[in-house]
Design brief:
Layout: H1 14-20, H2 29-36, H3 46-57, E1 69-79, E2 95-105, E3 121-127, E4 133-139, H4 149-158, H5 170-179, H6 181-192, E5 204-205, E6 210-213, E7 219-228, H7 237-240, H8 245-254, E8 259-267, E9 287-300, E10 320-322, H9 326-347
Antiparallel strand pairs: 1-2, 1-9, 2-3, 3-4, 5-7, 6-7, 6-10, 7-8, 8-9
Length: 351
Amino acid sequence: MPATASPGQPRVCVPCRLAAIGAVVAALAGGFAYAAGWLTPQRLTAQTVIDQFQHNAGQHPGFRRNHAKGVCIAGYFDSNGAAASLSKAAVFAPGRTPVIGRLAIPGGNPTAPDGSVPIRSMALQFTQADGQQWRTGMNSTPMFAVRTPEQFYRQLKAAQPDPATGKPDPARMKAFLAANPAAQALQAWLKQHPPSSSYANGSYHSINAFYLVDTKGQRHAVRWTMRPEQPYAPLSDVDKGVPSRLADELSQRLASGPLRWHLLLTLAAPGDPTDDATQAWPAGRRQVDAGTLVVERAHAQDDGACRDINFDPTILPAGIAPSADPLLAARSAAYALSHQRRTREVALGAR
């Protein structure tokens, strides 16, 4: 995760930005969580959440605390200019912007079989010619299971393995789902949408809402999706048993040429929620195809360019702004602490 943020970037809070570039120490975790606006009376902090990830997955020094297993990608974004009227960000002007990214699966175990989870993720860093960056982390689901950091922490607690079995207690997870109907909605969606057979043929969604800001200062609420040119196919039962099927298959596809996704910007209508990631916007909202992501190369994450990037979704160029979704501040704080821990572990000889 890069250790610098571009000058002039809008930030949620200075401590979060400093944490994201590795300039603070773990003792400030509570401080930046408070500044980010998600420290609760129950003392829920970035440290509490990241510690819970470690309880669930075990200790894996040098790796991300979530989405630990992945592969680096590199290429460029070819903007067609269609979104230039909606945002003054240079990334939307006609032309190419270099991109470094990462494809991964959720979870804190870097050796987990690819078939162990039904979700894939895509994280990207666009670097504009003026040095400003746009970082985004997307999932293969169009909504999230919970609305608030507190609910997310309770979900992690419910999924904590029972020491006697090494697996989550079904009763605890059932109780969590009963208390959180939105999480049930996501489970229902996953049953209707089997995981893709490849990183290359899956769609990836921002889930959280943001604002595009045009040259007149007008704000346009938006979510985005990376839609692949490769046709979707579900993961087969046979491939579920291949531990690293996704990375291997990606390399095979890239040997035949670049892979492409279209960046679709979905604009909110009046009344569409911008602070609740559990609610997908209705079909039929205006969409703008802003251009094409072209992935040319993939590299192992151990030494790839994505290894040290903090894909904090609140690192944004002028022309893109965060919404009031409480998960965004929480993600920024948690990603920063995860980055601080793993880069320190690497410096001490891990991996």
